[in-house]
TrEMBL record:
Keywords: Membrane, Transmembrane, Transmembrane helix. This is Uncharacterized protein. It comes from the Bacteria. It comes from Candidatus Anaerostipes avistercoris. The chain crosses the membrane at residues 20-45, 51-71, 205-229, 235-255.
């Protein structure tokens, strides 16, 4: 029996371009509106302008980033299709991988339009009884499947083409048609691997060490800053660079750990 899973939006309407452009436009307009409101508030304030402006900047930036991440995950979910052939082999395809990169806003809209066309073609191909796309990646085994608010992270052993194999991480957004059935198939692929003990992740150690190094160099930055002048000022910028690198490593290892990699 052939089974196909795709997001409800892709299955019913496939208005990928509209969702993309509307989402980007909404985020940009919201950003301008929030900046305008913050500017008005700052004009009316008489005291604590520096602290209030800093807090507003952090909050607005965090909100815009959160909305951008949500939109990216939603579009990724709509662009991914899962397919199970009659022999029980599971395939996945993210049609955005077939789209060449284009710069600028116009290029982004063109990429969204091509993605919508690829989705339409792939839907027709995989919905034909007994057929699947040669470009789809076969999921051999699921090593890790973690549930998060709004999505699942999958660490899978996959097969590309006829011979090449590897390990990939997929973000499975919630909102697929017959999602419980898809999760059951993925869980079955995960149970298949129970005979092999999965090595314990060392990411918590890396996270702790990266954060510890970050705290050390952040302390050096504070002590060498001209305002405090506890240490020589010539170590401020090197310490700042090292603190930034350690912070990036902390974020990187944290994301990997949350995904189960």
């Amino acid at each position: 029996m052939t089974r196909v899973w795709m997001s409800l939006q892709t299955k019913e309407k496939n208005h990928y371009v509209i969702r993309f452009t509307a989402g980007i436009a909404g985020i940009i307009l919201l950003a301008f509106l929030l900046v305008f409101l913050c500017a008005r508030i700052m004009i009316e304030l008489d005291e604590y302008k520096e602290i209030v402006s800093l807090l507003m900047c952090i909050e607005v930036t965090g909100l815009i980033i959160s909305l951008s991440v949500w939109l990216g995950r939603t579009l990724q979910r709509d662009a991914m299709i899962f397919y199970e052939d009659p022999s029980g082999r599971l395939y996945v395809s993210d049609v955005r991988q077939y789209i060449g990169y284009r710069r600028g806003i116009i290029g982004a809209v063109q990429m969204a339009l091509l993605t919508q066309r690829e989705l339409a073609g792939l839907k027709k191909q995989v919905e034909r009884q007994g057929g699947h796309s040669d470009g789809m990646t076969e999921i051999l085994k699921v090593d890790v499947m973690k549930e998060h608010p709004g999505f699942y992270s999958l660490v899978c052993r996959v097969k590309y083409g006829e011979k090449r194999t590897g390990r990939r991480t997929y973000i499975l957004g919630k909102g697929y048609d017959n999602e419980s059935q898809l999760l059951y198939v993925l869980e079955r692929k995960k149970k298949w691997e129970n005979s092999v003990e999965i090595e314990k992740s060392r990411k918590p150690i890396y996270i702790f060490l990266s954060f510890f190094v970050f705290c050390i160099f952040a302390g050096l930055c504070f002590c060498s800053h001209p305002y405090f002048a506890r240490l020589p000022q010539n170590i401020y910028f090197p310490s700042l660079g090292c603190a930034f690198a350690a912070f990036c490593c902390t974020i990187y290892f944290t994301v990997q750990y949350r995904r189960g990699e």
